From TrEMBL:
The keyword ATP-binding applies. One of its GO terms (cellular component) is plasma membrane. InterPro entries: AAA+_ATPase (IPR003593), ABC_AA/LPS_Transport (IPR051120), ABC_transporter-like_ATP-bd (IPR003439), ABC_transporter-like_CS (IPR017871), P-loop_NTPase (IPR027417). PROSITE patterns: ABC_TRANSPORTER_1 (PS00211), ABC_TRANSPORTER_2 (PS50893). This is Branched-chain amino acid transport system ATP-binding protein. Belongs to the ABC transporter superfamily. It comes from Enhydrobacter aerosaccus. The lineage of its organism: Bacteria, Pseudomonadati, Pseudomonadota, Alphaproteobacteria, Hyphomicrobiales. Gene3D superfamilies: P-loop containing nucleotide triphosphate hydrolases (3.40.50.300). It comes from the Bacteria. Keywords: ATP-binding, Nucleotide-binding, Transport. Residues 9-243 form the ABC transporter domain.
């Protein structure tokens, strides 16, 4: 990469202390535009803290976050989201009495001021991507848990994000829905050039989705490379207590 590279997402020396514990300790990483980056590491490594710092849930004690070259210093969660950094969709609320289609359209309309696009067309394309076509006019409360998770994620993609940060998007989700979520991420990445930072413990999915992963351990970036490269590093193996990254 040339030195003039503008990263989709960049953290510089991010530090966050909780009492005596440095949850993130000088974390610097760069994610290129259109990349799908994995963020892995053992329990307690600081991954969620990093996500919270990047998305403005926590203010860092030191360091900075840049989105497309612009510092996010001092900005709150909502301001950051408005700039196009969109967080995991586990928190997106669905309206149980509304249909799948209405939920998607509502997500679009709630952020209408941010769009230049056509809400109906985007809704149709999300219904196609999620393969929820048969259920498009079904109320959200009648969906299975997995289908609801899929719809929540699709609602998140109705936000015009340039960079999506997904924290454990596959946890507790059945394999069929997992595949649909993976397809949706790949499609949003290819079609809209969106950038992703994905925290996951599911190595087979990380291997499929993420050409490069960043490994965090004890609050620091311990390694970066392809999953197979980093899985061979002694310090990574030791950090996972000798368990293979499978
Ligand atoms: N709000 C908080 N107050 C105090 N300690 C916290 C807080 N949030 C996180 N921590 C601590 O910071 C460390 C890093 O936690 P974090 O949740 O970021 O790790 P993680 O890599 O996401 O772990 P996991 O994979 O288990 O979710 C842990 O020791 C955790 O207990």
């Amino acid at each position: 990469m040339s030195s003039g590279q503008v990263w989709a997402l960049e953290t510089q020396g991010l530090r966050k202390r909780f009492g005596g514990l440095l949850a993130t300790n000088d974390v610097s990483l760069t994610v290129a535009p259109g990349e799908i980056r994995g963020l892995i590491g053992p329990n307690g490594a600081g991954k969620t803290t990093l996500v919270n710092l990047v998305t403005g849930v926590h203010a860092p004690d030191a360091g900075d976050v840049r989105l497309a070259g612009k510092s996010l210093q001092g900005l709150g969660m909502h301001q950051i989201a408005r700039l196009g950094l969109v967080r995991s969709f586990q928190v997106t609320r669905l309206f149980g009495n509304m249909t799948v289609r209405e939920n998607l359209l509502t997500s679009f309309l709630a952020r209408r001021s941010l769009h230049s696009g056509d809400g109906l067309a985007l809704t149709d394309s999300m219904i196609e991507l999620t393969k929820l076509g048969r259920l498009a006019d079904t109320q959200a409360k009648k969906l299975s848990g997995g289908q609801r998770a899929l719809l929540q994620m699709a609602c998140g993609f109705m936000v015009p994000g340039t960079c999506y940060v997904l924290d454990e998007p596959f946890s507790g989700i059945n394999p069929v829905i997992k595949d649909s979520i993976i397809d949706m991420i790949v499609d949003v990445n290819r079609r809209h050039g969106a950038t992703f930072l994905i925290v996951s413990h599911e190595m087979s999915i990380v291997r499929r989705l993420c050409p490069q992963v960043t490994v965090m351990m004890e609050g620091r970036v311990a390694a970066q490379g392809s999953l197979d490269e980093v899985a061979r590093l002694p310090e990574v193996i030791a950090g996972y207590l000798g368990k293979a990254l499978e």
